[in-house]
């Protein structure tokens, strides 16, 4: 079993904005891996040269785990089940899609996903179990 850790976008953004997770980052137990989805979300939000440098350093310093074809297919199935179970509108399903992909990538690699987005990831975990840590 791997001892990989993936940080969700919410954790990275919180850290960049407020430095609130520094002590936890230093003490994290496990090998840090990037999710390609998280990096894409971070690139989408880059608004300064400092932001750009942070994302570049993340890419250089930690291997990137990429979404598989099976992850994509499974994400659609999970979202369809959520729609049927919860009656979610298309905009809510779009909002959840990347989070589902991040969770499935973590699950596929045996990684622990660390997030501050409790509600969405606990919901996703009711459909597919994965290692989750909330900060």
Write down the CATH class. Answer: Alpha Beta
Q: Tell me the number of structural domains.
A: 1
SS elements, strand count? 5
Helix-strand category:
alpha/beta
- So how many helices? 7
What are the key terms here?
135 residues, alpha/beta, Rossmann fold, 7 helices, 5 strands, globular
Helices and strands in order:
Blueprint: E1 4-7, H1 9-18, H2 22-27, E2 31-35, H3 36-45, H4 49-61, E3 64-65, H5 69-86, H6 90-109, E4 112-115, H7 118-125, E5 131-134
Parallel strand pairs: 1-2, 1-4, 2-3, 4-5
Helix pairs in contact: 3-4, 5-6, 6-7
Question: What would you note in describing this structure?
Answer:
Helices cover 63% and strands 14% of the residues. Strand 4, helix 7 and strand 5 (131-134) form a beta-alpha-beta unit. Helix 6 crosses helix 7 (118-125). The mean pLDDT is 96. The chain is globular, with a radius of gyration of 15 Å. The protein has helices at residues 9-18, 22-27, 36-45, 49-61, 69-86, 90-109, 118-125; strands spanning 4-7, 31-35, 64-65, 112-115, 131-134. The chain has one domain (4-134): Rossmann fold (3-Layer(aba) Sandwich). A five-stranded parallel beta sheet has the order 3-2-1-4-5. The protein is α/β, with parallel strands linked by helices.
